[in-house]
């Protein structure tokens, strides 16, 4: 159900669902368990989505949609091209910080949720490419090959999203994005 057609009660329920799932994951929950934890009926949950899988998908899409809006709002408030890359990736890191490892692992094993995270990762990589291109054109960055730097960022972002960086370094997704921001900005700065 599109958010424009939801009641304020349904929007509140979706926000509480997102908070619960991002903190505790979703694989082990049943609809009965979710209804109990959220203090609502299963019927109320079914008004958001037709099944547990659909409910998880809706919650994941809602989370990433809200996160993307927060990231773009912060970037829009930033004018210096060199700051925009840093702000973009650091705000992505901030948005990923509340996600528990269990939630990230559950997303990795549930294809519809994983596809949402993958699509958001691809969008983020494209956005970094765009911000680097803008920075080079404005003279804020060295004359680097923006598409190549973007590809390196994209490959790293995909490894973060798949949990590979966490497994090899012990960094959370949020910490890895913060490190990537620092690396990219220092690599392209004049």
Automatic annotation (TrEMBL):
<feature type="DNA-binding region" description="H-T-H motif">
    <location>
        <begin position="30"/>
        <end position="49"/>
    </location>
</feature>
<feature type="domain" description="HTH tetR-type">
    <location>
        <begin position="7"/>
        <end position="67"/>
    </location>
</feature>
<dbReference type="InterPro" id="IPR050109">
    <property type="entry name" value="HTH-type_TetR-like_transc_reg"/>
</dbReference>
<keyword id="KW-0804">Transcription</keyword>
<keyword id="KW-0238">DNA-binding</keyword>
<keyword id="KW-0805">Transcription regulation</keyword>
<dbReference type="GO" id="GO:0000976">
    <property type="term" value="F:transcription cis-regulatory region binding"/>
</dbReference>
<dbReference type="InterPro" id="IPR036271">
    <property type="entry name" value="Tet_transcr_reg_TetR-rel_C_sf"/>
</dbReference>
<dbReference type="InterPro" id="IPR009057">
    <property type="entry name" value="Homeodomain-like_sf"/>
</dbReference>
<dbReference type="Pfam" id="PF00440">
    <property type="entry name" value="TetR_N"/>
</dbReference>
<protein>
    <submittedName>
        <fullName>TetR/AcrR family transcriptional regulator</fullName>
    </submittedName>
</protein>
<dbReference type="GO" id="GO:0003700">
    <property type="term" value="F:DNA-binding transcription factor activity"/>
</dbReference>
<dbReference type="InterPro" id="IPR001647">
    <property type="entry name" value="HTH_TetR"/>
</dbReference>
């Amino acid at each position: 159900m599109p958010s424009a057609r939801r009641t304020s009660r349904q929007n509140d329920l979706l926000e509480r669902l997102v908070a619960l799932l991002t903190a505790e994951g979703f694989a082990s929950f049943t609809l009965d368990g979710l209804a109990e934890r959220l203090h609502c009926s299963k019927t109320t949950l079914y008004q958001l989505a037709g099944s547990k899988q659909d409910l998880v998908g809706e919650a994941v899409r809602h989370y990433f949609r809200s996160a993307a809006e927060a990231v773009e709002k912060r970037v829009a408030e930033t004018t210096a091209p060199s700051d925009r890359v840093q702000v973009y990736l650091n705000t992505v890191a901030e948005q990923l910080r509340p996600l528990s490892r269990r939630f990230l692992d559950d997303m990795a094993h549930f294809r519809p949720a994983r596809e949402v995270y993958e699509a958001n990762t691809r969008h983020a990589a494209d956005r970094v490419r765009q911000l680097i291109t803008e920075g080079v054109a404005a003279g804020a960055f060295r004359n680097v090959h923006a598409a190549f730097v973007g590809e390196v960022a994209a490959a790293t972002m995909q490894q973060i999203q798949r949990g590979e960086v966490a497994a090899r370094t012990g960094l959370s997704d949020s910490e890895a994005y913060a490190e990537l921001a620092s690396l990219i900005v220092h690599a392209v700065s004049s």
